[in-house]
Write a structure and sequence with these properties.
3 domains; D-Maltodextrin-Binding Protein, domain 2; alpha/beta; binds zinc ion; single chain; binds phosphoribosyl ATP; 6-stranded mixed sheet
Length: 284
């Protein structure tokens, strides 16, 4: 049995539940108190916690692995290893100042007070850049600090940027890119390492499928060489003859981010009847 700590409720919880379900791991919601749940079909126990407590819980061995924002992982600085980037809850951490601040460069931060809930990450950034700003630690609503005179600048998570905008602030330095990560404690037993490997295979198969589409198209045989060059699949495209002489059907896998660019190129090369189909799992 392996124990996974996840966020009880918040920005990570829905995606985490979805990921586990796509990995074929079924579990109850842990009842009304939702403290822990055991999977019915995989030897895993889930602990539901506040995200801030997850790194410590894994480092202490109460859980073996955890899902947490990279920002929290770096802030807590526990002896844990990131075993997989999970690709959701993407955001970045930035320093922001009031819009009216005539900011020219990092050295303008010298002597300022900066409000944040992430003092360790901020301290690392300031030290790395030889800046001597004062860190003012507060636990929430960091963005209102300059408006109420608590600090001259802030360091916080930014996603769309609308919170900064609504509070009359502008971003001046990006410090860290973040997304949800799977972390593991340092000394997992052989049994637990084996279960972690099984879980990772499932997670990677789900992620690989999310980033790719299955593509089918028809093309005259004269265009096949050009089309194959545009479509490098997992190995090479599958080509099958159509009933109509001189024509073939071609099947392949295409990366999501190259999708539109490749589709135009395929059409230009003579592809017709292009079908693009989602892939549920892709075992790498
Ligand atoms: O209760 P618990 O302690 O478990 O949760 P929490 O309230 O501390 O965390 P939660 O659920 O808000 O966020 C969990 C994780 O989601 C964070 O640690 C990040 O890794 C990630 N994440 C992704 C975000 C955001 N996007 C985000 N936009 N976390 C917070 N925000 C906040 C940010 O603090 C700021 O107030 O949203 C505001 C900025 O958003 P924009 O879109 O206006 O820029
Ligand atoms: Zn939290």
């Amino acid at each position: 049995m392996i124990t996974l700590a996840v966020q009880k409720s918040g920005r990570l919880s829905e995606h985490t539940t979805k990921l586990l379900s796509e990995c074929g791991i079924a579990f109850g919601n842990g009842g009304a108190a939702r403290l822990k749940a055991e999977s019915r079909n995989f030897p895993i126990q889930i602990l539901f916690l506040r995200d801030d407590d997850i790194p410590e819980c894994v480092a202490d061995g109460i859980a073996d692995i955890g899902i947490v924002g990279a920002n929290v992982y770096y802030e807590k600085a526990r002896p844990l290893e990131i075993v997989e980037q999970l690709g959701f809850a993407k955001c970045h951490m930035a320093i922001a100042v009031p819009k009216v601040f005539n900011y020219k460069g990092l050295s303008d931060l010298n002597g300022l007070s900066i409000a944040t809930s992430y003092p360790n990450i901020l301290r690392g950034f300031l030290d790395e850049n030889n800046l001597n700003a004062e860190i003012h630690e507060i636990s929430g609503s960091v963005e209102i600090a300059p408006g109420i005179g608590l600090a001259k600048a802030i360091f916080d998570i930014v996603s769309t940027g609308s919170t900064l905008l609504a509070n009359g602030l502008k971003e001046v330095a990006t410090v860290l890119q973040s997304e949800a990560v799977l972390v593991a404690g340092e000394n997992l037993s052989a049994d637990k390492t084996d279960l972690l490997d099984q879980l990772l295979l499932r997670i990677r198969s789900v992620k690989a499928a999310q980033n790719r589409k299955y593509i089918l198209l028809n093309a005259p045989n004269t265009a096949l060489a050009d089309i194959c060059a545009i479509l490098p699949g997992m190995k090479s495209p599958t080509v099958m003859p159509l009933a109509e002489t001189g024509w073939s059907s071609l099947h392949s896998v295409i990366e999501e981010d190259q999708f539109w660019e490749r589709i135009s190129a395929l059409k230009a090369a003579g592809a017709q009847g292009i079908l693009v189909i989602p892939i549920e799992k892709m075992i790498m």
